[in-house]
Amino acid sequence: MFGFGKAKEEEKEKSKIETEEDQKSNQKPDNDTKRVKKESLEGKQEPLKEKQQEEPKKSEEKQIKTEDQDKEIEKQQEETEKSEEKQIKTEDQDKETEKHHKEQEKSEKKPKKDQDALKKEQAVLEEEKSKFKNEQKMFFNKNTDSHEEKPEKIVDLFRNDPKRLEKFSHTIQIGDEFIYFDYSKTHIKPAGLSEMFKGFSALDRKSCMFNKERINFTEGREVLHVCLRDWNVLQLLKLKDGKATDEKEDILEKELKKLGEEERLVFDELLKMKEFDSKFANGELKGVTGKQLKTVVSIGIGGSDLGPRAVNEALEFYKRKEANVHFVSNVDPVEMLNTFQKIDPEETLFIVVSKTFTTQETMSNAQVALKLIEEKTGKSCAEIAEKQFVAVSANVEAVKAFGSKYRFDMWDWVGGRFSVWSAVGLSVILNIGFENYVRFLQGASYIDEHFRETDNHSNVPVIQALIEIFYSDKMDYNNKCIVAYDEYLKNFYLHLQQLEMESNGKCATLDGITTGQTCMLIWGGVGTNTQHSFFQLLHQGTRKVLMEFLVPLRPLQDKKVLNNSQFEMLFANCLGQSRALMLGENNSKDYKFFPGDRPSITIAYSRLTPEIVGALIAFTEHKVYIQGLYWKINSFDQFGVTLGKSVAVDILKAMDEDVKHMDTGSMRLLGLYKELNDRESEK
């Protein structure tokens, strides 16, 4: 705000200005004062108080040369405008530059105080800071890099559409039980879901699975795990039960002829497992020392372990009193050794599950188990394998070489993570009985029928698949957390994790390598335990998480046995968490602020019967298939499993030789391993 004129002032005024300026800035050097006097003489009737106010800034004028005053005046006026625009914020800053400049000149004629101006500017800054802070809270979950329109808040969707719950909730009847799916606490609107249906319609090939087409297009295989729980096969099993009559046998024979080749194989295998289960339950199976086999250890990994393990744990309420089932999957020797501490090896049946019967971890564990029993009993491995080891495999010759008397079949058209419905589930049968296992298959069959026969707009696996794709593709969510408010399902998410991530955790599509998003990360736990661990992040963290709650509406136990008030507390916590995530809480204290508007899906079931467990797994299988179709992914191969294992084989070979073709990091780790173990072996 420096003004300069061409006319000169009288000497008296010059002297007066000099005196007052010296009083104003007591510590100014003499040469500065003289310069001020010179500049004041060149000013044109500039108000005295204006000069006083601008004095702190005159140090900026020390380097200005005035050889060409006319040009310098014009330049300084332009600099004045720029300086004013940077330093002063006014409500009229969007107005034209000329009007703004006039208002500045007008304001320059009025007395100002630097302290007042600073206070005003500070107040404006504080106001802007507060406004920005509130905007951060309002848009807490907004991805600022996304160009997508911010979705309407979930609470507003409820407020604006009284029928939202009706539009976004579905029930599937599972025999005498049911499953209720609630998608209302998500951001998706009916119009948005309709658009996704349109986009999916051209990709819809769900009937291809039931038509036995080779939908595993990278390996050229059919995908027929639905045949393992075929409704007609299950009805024929019931017909087979009971006293045989000529009439019943005739009907059975006619109906069996109507079955497809795969369904007939399934029927025969189920009968074999039923017979084996009967022998086990009746105490007919004896070990190498003549003791009855009462305990089961299932040895497998991946789909040969996670599915049966999850189902056995989920159906613990239905287990036989005398049943005792354990699982060993890890190649870490600790797991097998710990298992042997819990069992009597002479009374234990071992089930070795491997389609090829060459799986590294599984066959290694089987050999370790053989050796441990040999050490305990003094019997030969061949005798132990024959009497106490059962194989579930497609490799007939390898099983014969191993020595097992019993072998149950597997087929190329059943993938590992979809195989719990086959003989891979033998441990489930021996644990809960064949009858309950058939109920488990029937629950899955109900979902198969719903998936195959229901229109997409009411098809629950399709709906959830598209909602999750909406969050992955449109909302930039990269993970889903599954929390079961059911102790029986505490590790259930681990099987669902494999179903989803091994199926769709891929970048290769029919169109080539995608740059878009595919499968979410799947993780989870059990309520209410997780409320005291990672729910802090879910409510107040910066990561966007799609929640999925699993909760029973009734307990399995009799209320006389069960503390019903605790069950009510369990259900209330599940419902409370979903509401709290949606509502949030506004608070002036940042650390008590909850953003809210966090989406969740709730899957409630009448009670956790074998049918419901089967239905929940089959539902996830079909949902995964739909997502694979949408992303143009083959959901039924798993080449990602092989690379690391093949590299591990190379490293195993390098244990006994010097290797120089590896990266320095890997070589260093291998060196540390060798060094430490060599020292140990020398002791």
From TrEMBL:
Region (Disordered): 1-122
Top enzyme category: isomerase
EC number per UniProt: 5.3.1.9
Pathways per UniProt: Carbohydrate degradation; glycolysis; D-glyceraldehyde 3-phosphate and glycerone phosphate from D-glucose: step 2/4
Gene3D superfamilies (alphabetical): 1.10.1390.10, Glucose-6-phosphate isomerase like protein, domain 1
Gene Ontology CC entries for this record: cytosol
UniProt keyword terms in alphabetical order: Gluconeogenesis, Glycolysis, Isomerase
Pfam family, one: PGI
A GO term, aspect molecular function: glucose-6-phosphate isomerase activity
Chemical reaction(s) catalysed: alpha-D-glucose 6-phosphate = beta-D-fructose 6-phosphate
GO biological process: gluconeogenesis; glucose 6-phosphate metabolic process; glycolytic process
Purpose of the protein: In the cytoplasm, catalyzes the conversion of glucose-6-phosphate to fructose-6-phosphate, the second step in glycolysis, and the reverse reaction during gluconeogenesis.
Family per record: Belongs to the GPI family.
Protein name, UniProt field: Glucose-6-phosphate isomerase
Native organism: Pseudoloma neurophilia
Phylogenetic classification of the source organism: Eukaryota, Fungi, Fungi incertae sedis, Microsporidia, Pseudoloma
